[in-house]
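Q: Structure tokens for this one, please.
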Amino acid sequence: MKIAVPAFMIASLASLRFTGDVAAMPEGTVCFPNEPLLQVSAPLREAQLVESRLLNLLHFQTLIASKAARCVQAAAGKPVIDFGLRRTHGAEAALLSARASYLAGFTGTATVPGNVRFGIPLFGTMAHSFVQAHDDELEAFETFARTQTDNTLLIDTYDTEAAAGKIVALAHRLKAAGVEIRGVRIDSGNLGEHARLVRAILDAGGLGQTQIFASGNVDEYRLAALRAEGAPIDGYGVGTHVGTSADAPYLDCVYKLHEYAGRARRKRSEHKATWPGRKQVYRYADASQHMLYDVLTLDIQDGTALLEPVITAGRHVQRPVSLDHSRDYCRQQIESLPAVLRALDDSPSYPVTVSPTLRALTSDVDTSTS
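A: Here is the predicted structure, written as tokens:
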């Protein structure tokens, strides 16, 4: 299907400026189904023009941050690094995935533009190809260790435990030159079993301070399993499963009209109905600041209002905050969740109630529209 757009309509975009209002939940806020994350109040063409891009940004980063937060919970305090660049769906997705996962608690990223653009700490290790480019594995280890002071050596290209033995011999020789081997990385096989064997080899060789870093198709469930079995792993690289949000590749994130020409509107499609009017979400917590329930309403209530003004009459009214500030806020938000909602397994739904006034408006809208 082809759509012909008159030239005057295209020309009018040159002078188009956003003149409306935007309210949003602060980045890093824990949110639940049927809650508006962002609200745009503007002339229709201004509001429609930004629809697809807003959905694209909100949907993707909410998806990745949610998956990353689960990995952080499963790692239980051990560092988790974003290794997702090669598996994400495009370069921008990799950059935004690095940002969203850092916001949700990852320690850093291996995606260099994430540091350049957002100041995310950079981490990396050697590649299998680096080892294979040398005729001797030990030579590869020594070259990398001497040139990279913050080194972590990849030891599973050939034989993981044999490589750990080489690391022990190399470490003592390099120590005389003032070079320390900081860590080793295991990227394949039974990570827990390999980690136990490697830890024993390193400890017996006097390398108790050398850390073990694990990667390779890791997600929150594997992290939890490795923790449960007591695997001696000091940190993790997580790529594919977070960068693609493998087991939950989309959210039903939508952008719908709720008021036009001074009248409340709503969609009534089967399984896709929306609530009308300019709504607010209020959050209620107990004395320990753990979340109890949210209310979706048209009224002013005494809870904490989650939608805050960001743009008024086309101008920013909220000062920008740093990514690290949002990261700290996100951590506080996750800590305020009831313990049962921080578990990886199925848990009770968090209560989000709809106020009587909103239900009454919904009934009025249904009565007055056909």
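A few notes: The first strand starts at residue 21 and ends at 24. Residues 277-370 form one domain.
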